[in-house]
Amino acid sequence: MTQLLEVDDLVVSFGALRAVDGISFAVTPGETLGLVGESGCGKSTTALALMRLLQGATLRGAARFAGRDLLALDEAAMRRVRGAEIAMIFQDPGTSLHPLIPVGEQVAEVLRAHLDIPATEARARALELFRKVGIAAPEQRLRAYPHELSGGMCQRVMIAAAIACGPRLLLADEPTTALDVTVQAQILDLLRSIARDSGMAVILITHDLGVVAGLADRVAVMYAGRIVEAADTRTLFANPAHPYTRGLLGAVPQLDRGWDEDLPTIAGSVETALAAKGCRFAPRCNFAYAACAERPPLEAVGEGHVAACWKVR
Amino acid sequence: MSPPLVEAVGLARHYRVEGRLLRALDGVDVAIARGETLGLVGESGSGKSTLGRTLVGLQAPSRGTVRFDGIDTQTITGASLRQLRRRRQLVFQDPSGALNPRMTIGATLTEHLRVQGWDRAAARAHVPDVLRQAGLSSEYAARYPHEISGGQRQRAVIARAISTDPDFLVADEPVSALDVSTRAQIINLLRALQRVRGLGMLFISHDLSVVAHACRNVAVMYLGRIVELAPREALFAAPMHPYTAALLSAVPRADPARERARDRIILPGETPDPSAPPPGCRFHPRCPLATDVCKRDDPPVRALGRGHVSACHHAERVPQLAAGGSR
Asked: Residues of B at the A interface (Cβ-Cβ below 8 Å)?
């Protein structure tokens, strides 16, 4: 299948630190890819690198998006991509919106920046978008300032701005982490139906395995700047291959079982990882052996299922 | 049955915000026994942190009483007040903000004990022991907060809380700021401490699955009230308040097959402004079961047997609603 986005050996370094250390993945049109990992694993850095929004970082590798390499575009060309063809939403909608401009105007501004339309039409379309993302009393809300809206409502505004120009790819970075669980359910529902109806592809970045289980078609698990495993969502949850993925899934408290036993844990912490020469998970891994001193390649362990581990090859 | 370790009756806590009265707590009765961990869940603004802070005495209630081991906590002063502080402690959500960045972990622990009246030498001598009980080796005494990981910082905060040998611990979102793998370690630690020391504990979390692992009884708060309280088995299998049913159905589960198969109960709107709660049942504008009586009458807390209480006019109809939403 033709890929919408094909990331090839992406490296993001800040001086000597490699925050993203050679990752490759692809997204097909209309697909939702979950990018999962704990803090510091490089998942947000990956998204910001694709948007070319990182300052002081050196990028290597390639990111082919609809026939162009995002990493090679000049700033003017990149500005035409951002917001129009690839949009992004963030964890904290409160700080992503301008506090002194009415939210309707902010959405209209996105439209006018990319489409040659008069202000009145931009406002009409903003109203249409507010309806689409389920904002109640949309006419009044167009004139509201961010501080007058709840967190969930601000996230709906962000989503309206993100889908305003009909992007082919949405980067959603922890879109529901700051929200209460009942509001989170509303926003996940909204993202699911927008992606389905518009055929937009989504890269969903999250630490929450439950969110990924409900929304993603495929999942890539990151650890310390590398992808350690990727598979379709059902396979990954049913048959995780990499010891880190297995540890992560085991450590999630379940709502309906295992209450009286201690939760399985992964020993140590991620701080040990960047010093590791070969496999970065080896210092915390129960199965580590001599071979792990070398970096394991990401290799097929099943149909559409890859893992980077010497033990499971 | 022995009297509860902590008992709050008719607890209210009001704040004035821009001339309006914000009712963070609005009539809460709760009792926690020695050796019991009560889980407290609810969304932001429900009043769960205010309840926790009031039960450890960091805040005075506007109305109502808190009794600790039979003593009315508002009436005591002097040495017995200090003694009371020793016996009830708080573990905060954000371990970075809870530790002084310019003090070593050892100095923080020593100071905490000094405030409780320990002499310096005894306090210092006690530090390695409490660190070990929190799962840290004694060398961490010399470290500064920024030199250790988030999980280790939370262990240090827990070490401080248990250093005075308390009877009662309030853990306010103790794992929310932590990554999945570290979170499991801290939940296990709190469970072990509770078991070994026979602590009474209030475990506050917005995450129902975390609470399921840490607590036998669970209370659910909404807009300053406890709307349901039950043993966890009953609460999760057959909730008797529609808000609990909706919360349970909204929790994303790490299980793709089930996550896609179930019908969620999606609540309309968001939690109302606590300075202007709706009349009648304060959940009625969002409730799928609401009828006229709910718009008119504030539902009383009803005992439904086997330690299950619910403040809902239609409690008996909730299990049916929940069965559709949690499959």
From this structure: 43-44, 149, 151-152, 179-185, 187-188, 191-192, 206-210, 212-213, 232, 236, 246-257, 259-260, 264, 266-267, 269-271
With a cut of 80, say whether residue A313 has pLDDT above it.
no
pLDDT of amino acid A110: 92
* Chain A residues with beta carbon closer than 8 angstroms to that of B185: 265
Number of domains in chain A: 1
Q: Which residues of B touch A210 (CB under 8 A)?
A: 251-254, 259
Bridge partners, residue A187, by sequence: none
Residue A271 has pLDDT above 80, yes or no: no
**Chain A environment of B206 (Cβ under 8 Å):** 180-181
Using CA atoms, how far apart are residues B313 and B282, in angstroms rounded to an integer? 12
Q: Which of B208, B212, B252 sits opposite A213 (nearest CB)?
A: B252
Contact across the interface for A255 and B251, Cβ inside 8 Å: yes
pTM of this structure: 0.89
Question: Do A6 and A66 contact (CB within 8 A), yes or no?
Answer: no
Which chain A positions have a beta carbon within 8 Å of B44's beta carbon? 180
Q: In this predicted structure, what is the pLDDT of residue B325?
A: 52
Which residue, B10, B14, B150, is CA-closest to B93? Answer: B150
Give which of A134, A196, A185, A255 is closest to B266, Cα–Cα.
A185
Domain of A295 in residue numbering reads as 245-313
A-interface mutation test, from B49, B176, B180, most A Cβ less than 10 A away: B180
Mean pLDDT of chain A: 92
> What single-letter DSSP state applies at residue A82?
B
CB B234 within 8 A of CB A211: no
Nearest to B31 by CA among B67, B74, B64: B67
Domains and their CATH numbers in chain B: 6-215 (3.40.50.300), 241-327 (no CATH)
Q: What is the pLDDT of residue A36?
A: 96
Residue of chain A whose alpha carbon sits nearest to that of B267: A182
Residue A96: inside a domain, yes or no? no
pLDDT > 70: percent of chain A:
99
Closest-CA residue to A207 (of A223, A186, A188, A193): A223
Residues of chain B where predicted confidence (pLDDT) is lower than 70: 1-2, 324-327
3-state secondary structure of B273: coil
In a domain, A301, yes or no: yes
A-B CB pairs within 8 A amount to 129
Residues of B in contact with A248 (CB under 8 A): 180-181
Q: Mean pLDDT across the stretch A47-73?
A: 95
Is pLDDT of A160 > 60? yes
What is the per-residue pLDDT for B326?
45
High-pLDDT (> 90) share of chain A, %: 76
